[in-house]
Amino acid sequence: MTHSTWSRYRIAAATVLLLFAACAAPEEDAGAASPRGPLRTLSPMPEERHFGELRMLTDGGENAEAYFSFSGTELVFQATVPPYECDQIFTMDLDGRNRKLVSTGRGRTTCAYFLPGDRQILYSSTHHHMDGCPPPPDRSQGYVWALYPEYDIFVVNRDGTGLRQLTDTWGYDAEATVSPVGDRIVFTSTRDGDLDIYTMNLDGTDVRRLTDDLGYDGGPFFSPDGTKIVYRAWHPKTEEEIADYRRLLERNLIRPSKLELYVMDADGSNKRQITDLGAASFGPFFHPSGEKVIFSTNYPDGQREFELYMIDLDGTGIERVTWSPEFDGFPMFSPDGRLFVFASNRKNSKRGETNIFVTEWR
Questions:
Q1: Is the pTM of this model over 0.85?
Q2: What domains lie within the chain, and their CATH numbers?
Q3: Of 166, 168, 247, 258, which residue is most buried, by most CB within 10 angstroms?
């Protein structure tokens, strides 16, 4: 998965397909690069009252999970663009220029994030186990996501040098992000036999398990003050659900049914569910106030259209943010709260491709 599991959702026909989500020299303009800045500027939908003019920073391939640097002047993101057959990690400026490859160009990568000071970047990769892409999930099991056990978490200098491996436990280690306070990494792992959330120091030491309910807990992000964590979860309840979950987990798979959002304190205490939508809700990120969460969901019909919504931490005040008939997801605010980045299928050159948009938040 990447924040992913996600690397991203892609809409095709009536089915939502999730694309999950050692250092080569940096490469510029790989696939979807734009040496002249934003490829297009677009007006938001009339109902999208929180958005100013939209700047489309990519156009081509699959681009998603774009996250701001601590300075708020750059983005790190994952993309599947030629010549790469699966996701690699890139950085770019906020005008779409200066695009550079950060990862090795081998294996599959996911979930990149800047570390404090913006001199290093955190991401997960399978490159140390394979040069090529891992196989797709077994669709004979129905619609499932792959939890590639080859994923480990790495830190690299922003120029692609100095790669260091932070995790080495066999199993899925991914979905890692960093506290705005700059002291801890939060991530998802199967190291103890289930999909749970952990934190660790920036150097990979002092690993602490925060969740222990049976089921998937993942996609975590810290609040602006670093005191809370928002995440997505699905906890099977019936005997049939539990048996199916365990059977698939043994095969490094998970069936994405209904995902709800939860909030907990940064030490794992005070867990509470904040959505009850009966849909697939994912990619939560705190509003700059720390009092709301923005996220993507296929509520209310549970079908192919994913939009961004906001909700108060007490589960009230739900508000629809995007109104495009295409997929919208992976939201993030800049550190100063002025800018907003997200991924969308809107206004693409090729149907189904996912691109990155930046706008001023109103």
A1: yes
A2: 6-360 (2.120.10.30)
A3: 166
